[in-house]
Design a protein that fits this description.
Length: about 80
């Protein structure tokens, strides 16, 4: 079974074995960190971002850790507990 991933999702997990897209981290952990489709323990994190943005991002001058927020597994900035 393949799922369509909406563009507004920042990232998603994709099984390295069968290519199944896990709908959420919760689904992954509910299966004891295995693919719900084939049981593989190997997954890849895929980001929904343009590769054209990466050079500008990498060349930036990060003032702190949160410069990398677009690439962290957090969805909402209000979940940040330190600054």
């Amino acid at each position: 079974m393949r799922l369509r991933v909406k563009r507004q999702k920042k990232y998603y997990l994709k099984c390295a074995g069968c290519g199944f897209v896990t709908p959420s981290f919760k689904a992954w952990f509910d299966q004891f960190q295995k693919c719900p489709n084939c049981g593989s323990k190997h997954s890849e994190v895929w980001y929904n971002t343009s590769y054209k943005r990466l050079p500008r991002f990498i060349k930036g001058n990060p003032q702190n850790f949160w410069h990398y927020f677009p690439y962290l597994p957090l969805v909402l900035k209000r979940h940040i507990i330190t600054r």
